[in-house]
Every structure is written in C-alpha cells, then in structure tokens.
Amino acid sequence: MRVVIAEDDPLLREGLALLLRAESFDVVATAGTPEEFLAAVETHGPDVAIVDVRMPPTHTDEGIKAAVRARRSRPGLAVLVLSAYVEQAFATELLAEGSARLGYLLKERVGRVQEFLTALHRVADGGTAIDPEVVTQLFARTRPDAHLDRLSPRERDVLALMAEGLGNAAIAERLRITEGAVHKHIRSIFAKLGLAPTDRTDRRVAAVLRYLDDARRRA
Predict the structure, then answer these.
(1) Cα angle 138, 143, 144; round to 5
(2) For position 210, which CATH number holds?
(3) Which CDD domains match (predicted)?
(4) Structural contact between residues 13 and 32, judged by C-beta atoms closer than 8 angstroms
(5) Do residues 90 and 53 touch, judged by C-beta distance below 8 A?
(6) Which pLDDT belongs to residue 93?
C-alpha cells in the first residue's frame, strides 16, 4: 500500500514514516507543506494520504483544503486526517465531500498503534474511520436520536454498510439484494431521519454521522 504523509512537525512526520514502514507500508513521500503534499500526490499516485489539519503558512485549515483538493484531483484516493483536537467546522467541511475512503482521527490515536493501523486499513479498503470524540463533539448539543429506532432491521443493515463507506452497488452485493432495493431503503432511511434534500447537506453523510453517534451512545 503506497502512502504519502503530510505533517509539518518533522518528528511526528518521520515517526509516522518509521512506524508505517515497519508495518510493511510503502511510504513513497513525506511533505511538510500543502504544496509539497499535493505535488507528491500528483507524482507518486498513492493509495492513501495521511494529512495534518493545521499546516503552514497560517496553521489553520491548509491541511483540510489540501486533502479536499487531493481527493478531487485523484478520485479514489483514501485520506486519513489527523488533528490535535476536534475541529468541528473542518470535520464538517471534509465530510461534505463524502464519507467513503475517509478517516478523521485525533493525533492521540497514533500512540495507540493498533487503533491507528486499523483505522488506516479501513480507510484504504474503502471504509470510514471517524474518531469517536469527533462524533461526540459534532453531536454535543443533541439528545439521543429516537428517529433511528424507527428504522427496520434491513434499513439499519443498509445504514451500517453506508457507515463503512460502501456505495449502493457494494451494499446490494453484500446484502444479496438488488441495487434498486438498496435505493428504496436509503430513501426510506432519509425520510425516517427527517433528512430532506437540500443544496447544503449531504444526506448520506448526515445519516452516517447520526448512526455513528447512536452507536457511540449505545456502547
């Protein structure tokens, strides 16, 4: 698996590279700036990118913006974003691009090597890995979502696979139903969760986040 790392802290950048190489990942490039990162993605065509949220020159949202640009320029690129703490606005901005092949973890997870590697593999395999604390912060002001209790068992199965980042065709194959049936289940999920079509909200991402928050509350 070919990996590019974008992190402006040299110690963390090299530490991640050493860790991944020891786990047999092919770290093809490391970058300390968004420009270097985007150039590395263009040159090496990695399978997955690990990107720090805050990067030079302003250390605000350069990493997020670079990650979004990289995903747009290289469809299929898996991205695992690392942040020192929860950045609600940035998490929402990134998730607006879709949840497949996407991860958002707090940097403290890197120290829990197995958790970090599990998240990295899940993202690279097409799934979603959102830090539980990120989900908690995104839903900090909400109560448990009773709407999820209205979903049928099959609808919950579909939503669970959506949370793994699977598209409709992959969900149909996994559940051994038609793609048309999956589409109907998803429309029903949106209706039961009160997710009306808008230009500002990706209903699929919103449904996944609500599912993850419910799973966290029940854990």
Answers:
(1) 95
(2) 1.10.10.10
(3) LuxR_C_like (cd06170), REC_NarL-like (cd17535)
(4) yes
(5) yes
(6) 66
